[in-house]
C-alpha cells in the first residue's frame, strides 16, 4: 500500500520538476532562445489545458454512468479546431494586432474599450471559474485519499472530513506560489509566459501518457477488447438513451463554446500564441490529442464496472482499477496524471483571471482613486505586479472557499457544465463583435446581462437549491409562486433536460438582446472605429487606428507613463525602436498619433485596453477623432479605400497617358512644322526649274525672229531643267521611302574599297569636264562590310560628285582616303573647294540643305543628296558627317561597321 | 525694239537673281521690250549697284544669297536717294504670307514663279513709266 507520505513526497517531487522546467524555460527564453515560442507542438499541448481533472477522472465516470455522453466534451473542440479554424485565426490575429490580454479585454476593446463590459466579463469569468478551481482541488484531494489509502477506500468514496490535513489547502498554496512565480515574474507587453507554457505542455504529455498506460493495462489484463465488452456491457455503455439527442447536441455546442470562451483557453490559444501559423498545426494535432485522450475511456469504465464492487465511485476508476489489480506504481502514475490535469488548469486559469481582475477591476479603481498621486509617487509597474499577485491569491482563496463550503454537497460534480454554460454567455458578444459590424456596446451589455441573469436563474439557482430553502421553493413553484417562472420550466417549457433548457433560454435571450440592443443604439465614434478594426482585421493593416485618431502629447509625459508601466528598459526600447522606425537617430520619437497609438497598445498589453486608454488620455492633449476619418473608415471602409485606390491607379495611368499624349502631340507638331517646311521647300525647288521651262517655252513661242542658236540654247535649258525636275522628284520619293523605312534592300558582304574605286570611276566624266583631279588613297588592311552595293555607291558618288561640282578652286582636287579604324571602315572625301561656310552640320544633312546649294546654284543637284546619303548611312549602322570645313576645303567622313 | 516706256525713254532695269537661267530669261524678255538690263546674283551686290547707279526698276528675287530680297527692299526704302525706287519682287515661295510681308515692306509688285513673261514685262514697264513720271 502507498502511504500518504510517499504520495506527498512524489507529488512534491513532481511539482519541483515543474518548477525547474518552468524556471529553465523562462531563463532560456529570456536569453533569447525561442524554441518554446517557436514550437507549434508545445503550443498545441498547452491548449490541452482544456482537459482538466474533470475530464481526466470524470470522463470515465461519465462513461460508466451515461455511456457515450462524455464524447461530446471532446467533440465540440474537435469541431471548432477542424471546422472553424477561421474563427480561431481571426481571434489570434486580433489578439496580436491589438495586444489583447484576455477575453474580457477583447470584448471590451471591440465595444469601444468599454470598461463596464470588461468588468462584466471579468466577474462572469470569476463566477464561472471559481467552482471549476474548486473542482480541481476536490479531484486532487479525493484522488490523493484514494491512492494513498488514507481515509478513502477502494470504493473511492469520500469518507468524510479528513480533518486539518486537507491536501486541497496545500495544493492551493503550491499553485499560488507557482503561478505568482512564473505567471507574474515580469510584465511582458504581450503577456506571454514561456515558463508556464512549457510546464503546461509537459503536464499535457504526462496526463496523456498516464491515461494511455492505464488504458493499455486494462486492455491487456483483460486479454483483449472482446473480453472487456461482453454483450451485456456493450449494451450498457453504448446503447443509452439521449445519445445524439438534444442534450448531446447542447453538450457538444457547450464544449465547442468553452474552447473559445473559457478564460484559460483564450489565454493559451490567443494570448500565449507566438505565431499565427501555429494554429495550422494545432488544427489537426489538438483533435488528435483529444482522440488519444478518449481512446481508453470506455475500456477503463467497462473494467471498473466489471472488476470493482458495485457502488464504487466511477469518477475514481482511473485510480481504483489499477489499484484493484495491485498495480500501485501505475495507480501512482495515474494520480500524477490527474494531478497534472488539475494543476495545469488551476495555473492557467489563475493567470488568465488575474490579468482580467487586475486590468479591469483593480487597476481602474486604483487609477481612479489615486490618480493624482500616482504620477508623483508610485511605480505603476510594481503596482500592476502587486495587483496581479493579489488577484491570484484572491482567486485561489475563492476556489478554496467554494470547495470548503460545497464539499459536503454533491453539487460540485455538476459545476463543470454549469461553468461551461456560464462562460458560453460570452459567445454572442464575441461572435457579434468579430463578424457583425453593427454590434454595439449597449447590445453587448444587454445581451450579456440577460444571458447571465437567465443562466443564474435557470441553472445556478436550481443547483444550489435544497428542499425547504427559499431556492428550493422557487425551483418547485416558480418565482413569487408563478408556475410560469419555474426556473427549470420557464414559460411552460416542461420536460426538457435542465441544461438544455437553461442553455436554450439564456443564449437565445442573450443573442436577441445583443441584436435588439445593437439595432436600437448608436455606436460611439471609438466603437465604430474598433468594430471596423476588429471585423475587418484581415483587411486592415495594423496602425489603421492612428489614421483616424489625431492625437499629440508631450514626449516626456509619455516616457514617464510608459516607464512606470512597462519598466524603464522596455519603455526605453519602445521609444528607441519607434524613433528608428520614424527615421530618427536621436532615440526620441515624435509623439505623433501613430506613436501614441503604438504606446497605448503596449500599455494595454499590461493593464488592458480600457485602462490604457484612460492613462493615455491623461497625458494626451487635445484628443480629437476626426469625423471624416471615422466615416471614411467605418462606412464600407474597405470598399471605399479599394475604390479610391483603384481610382488613384486609374488617374495615375491617365496622367501617364496624358504625358505620353502630350509628348506625342509635341512630336506631331514638330513633325507637322517639319512637313510644312519640307513642302514649302519642295514647292520652291519645283517652282525654280518649272519657271525656266515655262518662261523659255513662252519666249520661244512668242519670238518671231530668233537666231537658231539662241532658240537651240533655250530648248537645251528647257531640256536640262526638265531632267532636273525629274531627278528632284525621284530624290523626294527616295528620301520619303528611306525615312518611312519601307525600302527593303538586299544586304550582302562587300568590299568597300571596290565600291570607292567604282564611285570614282563613275565620276570620271564629271571630273574631266570640270578639270578636277581625283585621287584614291586605299586602306592598308582589307575589310568587308555588310550592306547594299548600290546604296553604298550612291553615298560615295554623291559625296565625290558634290566635291567635284562645288569645287571652284584654281587647282581643284578631290581626295578619297580609306582606312580601317576602331572596327569601322572609314572614308574621308576631302576637297580644296569653298567649304560649307557657316551652315550648321545638322542643317547640312537635312532636306534641301541650303549652304552648298546656294553656292553652287545653277548646277545640277537637288539639295536632297546629303539628306539621302545620311539616311542610307544610318540604315547601314554607319555615320556620315562633315569633319572639316574651311575656306580652303572641306572633308566629309563616312564610317561603316566592319562585318564580323 | 529701242522704245520701251510710254514716254519713249529707255528704261534701265536691275535684275537681282541667283539662278543663271532665270537671269538669262529675264534679260532676254526685258531687252526685247526695249529695256536696258544689268544683273547681280546676290543681295549685297544689289544694294551696292543701286547706290552706285540707281535703275528705273528693281526686279528682285526673294531667295538671294548674302542679303535676301526683304533685306534689299528694306535697305532701298530706308535709303535717302532711292526710297521711291519701284521694286518688283519675284519668288518661288508661293505663300501668301510672303506676299504680305513684302507688301508691308512697300513692294510695288509681287510675282510668283513660274510667271508669265508678258506679265513681268507689263508690270516692269508700268512701274518704269510711273516712276519716271513721279520724278
The tally of beta strands of chain B, per DSSP, is 5
User: Structural class of the helices, strands and pairings of chain B?
Assistant: alpha/beta
Mean pLDDT of chain B: 84
SSE topology string of chain B = EHEHEHEHEH
CATH architectural grouping of the largest domain in chain A: Up-down Bundle
What order do the strands of the largest sheet of chain A run in, or round the barrel if closed? 4-6-7-9-8
Number of helices of chain B: 5
CATH superfamily of chain B: Response regulator
Question: What is the residue-averaged pLDDT of chain A?
Answer: 78
Using the coordinates above, name the CATH class of the largest domain in chain A.
Answer: Mainly Alpha
Please tell me how large the radius of gyration of chain B is: 13 Å
Number of folding domains of chain B? 1
Given as residue ranges, the uncertain stretches of chain B (5+ residues, pLDDT < 50) are none
Q: Biggest interface, which chains?
A: A-B, 23 and 24 residues
> In percent terms, what proportion of residues of chain A is strand?
5-15%
Structural class of chain A: alpha+beta
Number of domains of chain A: 4
Architecture overview:
The complex is a heterodimer of chains A (about 900) and B (about 140). Chain A is α+β, with helices and mostly antiparallel strands and about 900 residues long. Chain A has 40 helices and 9 strands. Chain A folds into 4 domains: about 5-415, Sodium/glucose cotransporter, CATH 1.20.1730; about 540-630, no CATH class; about 640-740, Helix Hairpins; about 745-895, Histidine kinase-like ATPase, C-terminal domain (Heat Shock Protein 90), CATH 3.30.565. In chain A, the strands form 3 sheets. In chain A, strands 4-6-7-9-8 form a 5-stranded mixed sheet. Chain A has a two-stranded antiparallel sheet with strand order 1-2. In chain A, a hairpin with a 2-residue loop joins strand 8 and strand 9. The longest helix of chain A is centred in the last third of the chain and has 66 residues, at about 635-700. The model of chain A is unreliable at about 150-165, about 620-635 and about 850-860 (pLDDT under 50). Chain B has one domain (about 10-130): Rossmann fold, CATH 3.40.50. Chain B has 5 helices and 5 strands, in the order βαβαβαβαβα. Chain B has helices spanning about 20-30, 45-50, 70-80, 95-105, 115-135; strands at about 10-15, 35-40, 55-60, 85-90, 110. Chain B has a 5-stranded parallel sheet with strand order 2-1-3-4-5, sandwiched between helices. Chain B is globular. The two termini of chain B are about 25 Å apart. Chains A and B meet through helix 33 of A and helix 1 of B.
